[in-house]
Design goal:
The protein is α/β, with parallel strands linked by helices. The protein has one domain: Phosphoenolpyruvate-binding domains (TIM Barrel, Alpha-Beta Barrel). Helices cover about 45% and strands about 10% of the residues. The protein has eleven helices and eight strands. An eight-stranded parallel beta sheet has the order 1-8-7-6-5-4-3-2. Strand 7, helix 9 and strand 8 form a beta-alpha-beta unit. The two termini are about 20 Å apart.
Length: about 280
């Protein structure tokens, strides 16, 4: 795939309910290169991992410039489609979200996640109408570039535990429909792993549904059976990598041994992944 439009179309086609696209999220160019080399059909970023790698906390603390720079470096080293987690769009209003979308497309991305968590106000969630306006702005900005960007609308009802548990699924479905009407292509509900509730969401929205997984969550086969179209590890791979760094440092300091770093990617292979021409 050479053109960004071809990559965008290919990425869109990967979202098949019952045959989910599985994404191990990257946080920098090196992790993206390793993930792509593993045979992944696409690379997704994790905003948390990107922020941590750049010395910032997650949750709206990263600047647009830093986030876009990370996307650009990732797109430069992989040939597969890249979708970017842009948190709330890195801006106070819908116009700012549109600017971010144009910049991540210029950096090479063919998809974005936009969350409805209220990172800049009293929260925990933006009003659905306000979030729909932000998604509509993202859709319009993307369409004006000619790149068929996949807009994944993230709904944080389960992640943040908003409202009563008995009404949470209904609120999620309502938000999903509003965001799809505004121009979103898919729905992402991190924190939701109940298979029955996922099946209802799939049926009620008739759109690709993305869930986040972690150890103990249903496996890919079970989620496929519920109609999921996309599965992502979120910040899990980055957290595991940092966990290994802590383990290796502790072993070195306490035992004077180095077993924790066994099994790492070969030095020459890693060099070749990020700099194939060199």
């Amino acid at each position: 795939m050479n053109s960004q439009i071809e990559k965008a179309r290919a990425f869109r086609a990967l979202h098949v309910p019952g045959t989910p696209l599985a994404l191990a999220n990257a946080w920098d160019a090196g992790s993206a290169a390793v993930i792509a080399a593993s045979g992944a059909a696409a690379v997704a970023t994790t905003s948390a991992g990107v922020a941590w790698s750049l010395g910032a906390g997650d949750g709206g603390r990263l600047t647009r410039e830093a986030a876009v720079g990370a996307v650009q470096r990732i797109c430069a080293v992989v040939g597969v489609p890249v979708t970017a987690d842009i948190e709330d769009g890195y801006g106070e209003d819908a116009d700012a979200v549109a600017v971010t979308v144009r910049e991540v497309i210029a950096a090479g991305a063919v998809g974005v996640n936009i969350e409805d968590g209220d990172l800049r106000g009293p929260g925990p969630l933006r009003h659905s109408a306000e979030q729909a306006a932000r998604i509509a702005a993202a859709r319009k900005a993307a369409d004006e570039t000619g790149v068929p960007l996949f807009v994944n609308a993230r709904i944080d009802t389960y992640l943040r535990g908003t409202g009563e548990a008995s009404t949470r699924l209904g609120e999620t479905v309502g938000r999903a429909r509003a965001y799809l009407d505004a121009g979103a292509d898919g729905i992402f509900v991190p924190g939701l792993i109940d298979l029955d509730a996922i099946a209802v969401l799939v049926a009620e929205t008739a759109a690709p549904v993305n869930v986040m997984v972690w150890p103990g969550a249903p496996d890919v086969a079970a989620l496929a059976g519920a109609g999921v179209a996309r599965i992502s590890l979120g910040s899990g791979v980055a957290q595991a990598a940092y966990g290994l760094a802590r383990l290796a440092a502790g072993e070195l300091a306490e035992a004077g041994t180095y077993g924790a770093v066994a099994g790492g990617v070969d030095y020459g292979e890693m060099n070749g992944l990020v700099n194939p021409a060199g």
